Amino acid sequence: MASHKAGRMSEDIKRIISGKIRDLKDPRISKNGMITIVRCDVAGDGSYCKVYVSSFEGYDKAKEAVKGFESASGYLKREISNVLGLRKCPELKFIADDSIEHSAQISEKLKSIAAELDDKQDGADL
Questions:
Q1: In the chain, how many H helices and how many E strands?
Q2: Are 80 and 74 a contacting pair, CB within 8 Å?
Q3: 95 vs 34, higher pLDDT
C-alpha cells in the first residue's frame, strides 16, 4: 500500500461490501451462504481496488460468487461513494481466493496432530 489513506480506504471498502452482501439479490451470491471478503487492496492513487472473495464451500463457489459481484459492481460502487463521500469511486476488480478453504485444511491437520500427541501421552502415562 502506498499510503495510510489507501490502507484506510481498503478497510472501509471491505467493511461496506461485507455489509452489503446480504442485500444483494443475485442468486450466485445469496445461495452461497458462506461468502466472505478476505481483503481489499486499493491502488495508491485510489483508481482501482482488488477485492478478494472466498467461500467456505470451495474455490468453485468463490469463482461463481465473483461473477455475481461483477454484475453488482455498479450498485456497490454507488454505495461506497455515498458512504465514503468520494467523487470518484475506485474500479472494483473481484478475484476468487481459496484462503478460507486452505486455512480449514491446516486447522484439520493441526487437530489431527494434537490428537496423535494426546494419544502418545496417554500411552506413556500407562
A1: 5, 3
A2: no
A3: 95
